[in-house]
Amino acid sequence: MTPARFVEQLAAISFRGVFNPYRDACCQHDHSDSPAIRRMNLQRYVEAAVSSGVDSIWLGRDCGYRGARRTGIALTDELHLTALENHFGMSGLAKATVGTVVKERTATEVWKVMLEVNARVFLWNVFPFHPFEEDNPMSNRRHTTGEFTRCRESLVALLEWLQPQTIVALGADAHSAVQRLGFPVSLVRHPSYGGQTAFAAGIRSLYRSQPTPVSRAS
């Protein structure tokens, strides 16, 4: 597996009612090169993670319409692309959309706490695309079991490839998905819907203890 091949495989997947940031262009907020920019953003991000190594992976559930749908980077909005570059000592991430920079509440809370943690954290979602409600592309919904099944091997491949010491699930849905795959995972409250304080407290508590190496359960 190479970063380019990983991104290529994601870009080949298509669902009804799901926006694939690495394949699809939004008629409202994108231009013709937007999917290619998001593919390059993700490829550079994965290359930096592979090169430098990661201590932890934090997993959300799905891409949000104000975050990864626009940037191609999980739990990261356009406002925090520079923070991501600084976190991994990398460069070359680019804004893929037209118009002004858009802020996402979840990304804001994640990055606020991530900058407190003395760990190299890779951000991802158990379902790497943006599922939306019928006839409302600018909405968020939970991915279906069938949608997850078609993408589960990309999550397994990433976890086995990066070999983080700690996997953290943001919310019960992400936690359940990773448990079903056989990986040890810690659960913290998702920062949305009033969960900011509990999320921050959970992360701080988790990183006060020493993580143990991750291995997939047999």
Give an account of the 3D structure.
The protein has 218 residues and is α/β, with parallel strands linked by helices. The two termini are 22 Å apart. It has eight helices and six strands. The protein has a four-stranded parallel beta sheet with strand order 3-2-5-6. The longest helix has 19 residues. The C terminus is likely disordered. β5, α7 and β6 form a beta-alpha-beta unit. It is 41% helix and 10% strand. It has a single domain, classed as Uracil-DNA glycosylase-like domain (Uracil-DNA Glycosylase, subunit E, 3-Layer(aba) Sandwich).
What is the fold-level CATH name, i.e. the topology? Answer: Uracil-DNA Glycosylase, subunit E
Tell me the helix content: 40-55%
What is the CATH architecture annotation?
A: 3-Layer(aba) Sandwich
Please give the number of β-strands.
Answer: 6
Using only C-alpha atoms, the radius of gyration works out to 16 Å
Distinct helical segment count: 8
H/E series: HEHEHHHEEHEHEH
Give the uncertain stretches in residue-range form: 210-218
Percent of residues in β-strands:
5-15%
Q: Within the largest sheet, what's the order of strands? A: 3-2-5-6
Largest sheet: 4 strands, parallel
CATH superfamily: Uracil-DNA glycosylase-like domain
Mean pLDDT across all residues, rounded?
A: 94
Q: Can you tell me the overall shape?
A: globular
Termini separation (Å)?
A: 22 Å
Task: Indicate the CATH class.
Answer: Alpha Beta
Global structural class: alpha/beta
